[in-house]
Amino acid sequence: MSSDKTNILMKYKIVFLGDQSVGKTSLITRFMYDTFDEAYATTIGIDFLSKTMYLEEGKTIRLQLWDTAGQERFRSLIPSYIRDSHVAVICYDVTNKKSFTNLDKWIKDVKLERGDDVIIVLVGNKSDLASDKRQVSLEDVEQLHNKIGSKFFIETSTKANHNVKLLFKKIAQALPDFSNDDVAENGQETLTNKPETIDISIENNGQNQGTSSCC
């Protein structure tokens, strides 16, 4: 007899990487609480948040979101958090060319720890400033995307709440659907009560931010 998987809540680890001040914390906070603060405190070390998410197809999953510090002094901590991740969300600031150039070192860390056994997503934040302050073109990102084989790339604005839900929706759609045989390796728990969930079926794009590439 096949196992009943309707009461199994799958857990997935998603690690957010990138230089300091590219918007990793604000991205997670917008998704978790639908809020934005102009003056986020710099992340010290590693922060962890968990959210149960309801998908359009009736599936419920739990995302474990690991927010890493971008400062060089914390770099030695990060590989251990990449090691068992399912998704690496590598962020840059579309108005800061250096933050994009530095993606190479974050990608290298991911490849060293996970090889090709991880979903890589490239996220350009602060798209609300792109019209007059853009330093990273969509062509630059597409070229990097093709080079490293990332799952997709997307531009977001946490301030304007643009493409944030879409980002997490696309991540959820890209996640592997593990069988019950994978419990020990990937982590599952029994869903006994209906959890508090976030419904990502509707995207609030806020102000029109122009073209946001996703591929």
UniProtKB/TrEMBL annotation:
Keywords: GTP-binding, Nucleotide-binding. SMART domains: RAB, RAN, RAS, RHO. It is found in: Endomembrane system. It holds the Pfam family Ras. The keyword GTP-binding applies. It comes from the Eukaryota. PROSITE patterns: RAB, RAS, RHO. It is a lipid-anchor. The keyword Cytoplasm does not apply. Its main location: membrane. This is GTP-binding protein ryh1. It comes from Lodderomyces beijingensis.
